[in-house]
Amino acid sequence: MNKLKAMEIFVRVAETGNLSAVARERNLTQPAVSQQIVALEQLLGTVLLFRTTRSVTLTEAGERYYHQIVPVLDALAETEDSLFTQRQQLTGTLRIQAPSGLGQKLITPVVIAFQQQHPGLIIELMLEDRLSDIVSEGIDLAIRLGKPVRQNQVIRQLGEVERVLVAAPAYLHGAGTPATLSTLADHRSVRYSGLAEGDALTLEGPDGKETVLLKTVFRANNSLSLITALEEGMGIGSIQKPLVAEHLQKGTLVRLLPQYRWAPLTLYALYPTGRFIPLKARMLTDALISSLENIDGIKPVSGLNVKRQ
Fold first, then answer.
1. pLDDT at 303 (0 to 100)
2. How far are the Cα atoms of 36, 76, 81, 118, 120 from residue 90, in angstroms, in the given order?
């Protein structure tokens, strides 16, 4: 038995509560993962996990062992990282999650270039808008928009993203151009699905906050689908400015009501709670920050700004 490998597998089983998930992560069979755990339990002379057909949970001994070995494994990873820093040779796997729109437009090119600079690195990029549990899913770096929703998260701010109201010239030619926020009630609206505020839109205007109830005719859970609908003249919609900067320059979309503004959306990197942040994740974050410096619609941040939320 490779004791270090068994310890690493045990930690991931403890964090995911799922033998099959860890097997997929490690490119192993579920019986092989189980055998590693059993061998570790035999070596320690104690039961670490309760196993049922539906779940895997830690025993009291397993809970203690988990909290004792995580710092040991993190210290080992930090030592290895210090050696990689000297050689600047990154290896292993880096799992990244990012929002679909910005992920396709801005993050994918940076990730591809990063892997080409570090060919020993295996990168898995997942573009999705759901708020996953990055610890249980084994994600090394998540890029998020908005505000952190959980406590004890290690984050690094990347920038602030501006949102704008836009529509296609063809739509405005037929429906007219709104002059105030309240007149949006008379227009067709294109919106992101699943918004907490539903069809209400609240913005900061010349006279303070204003709210209008929109008439939504099209919803999508993907920013690029919304942009296509807007270009096809389906209505007026709000979108992250970096995603439509080129469309605004070309004139396929027109910005509306610039006197009304949202609070900026924070774009931030999120790392697994309480774990050592690998050099590869930190270096990719640096590369992302550098790439955002000249993006229209993103206000970059300065400094390291790593903190626990």
1. 43
2. 27, 16, 9, 6, 6
The share of the chain scoring above pLDDT 90, in percent, equals: 44
Sign of the CA dihedral running 215, 218, 221, 224: negative
In this structure, what token pair is assigned to residue 200? Answer: 């209400």
Question: Strand, coil or helix: what is 190?
Answer: strand
The number of C-alpha atoms within 13 Å of 231 and in the hemisphere containing its C-beta is: 14
Classify the phi-psi angles of 103: left when phi > 0, otherwise alpha if psi is within -120 to 50, otherwise beta: alpha
**Does residue 150 have a pLDDT over 70?**
no
Alpha helices in 145-200 (DSSP H): 169-175
Which residue ranges form the domains of the chain, and what is each CATH number?
Answer: 3-77 (1.10.10.10), 88-152+270-308 (3.40.190.10), 163-256 (3.40.190.290)
φ and ψ at 192, to 5 degrees? -70, 135
Residues near 93 by Cβ (< 8 Å), separated by ≥ 6? 121, 122, 123, 124
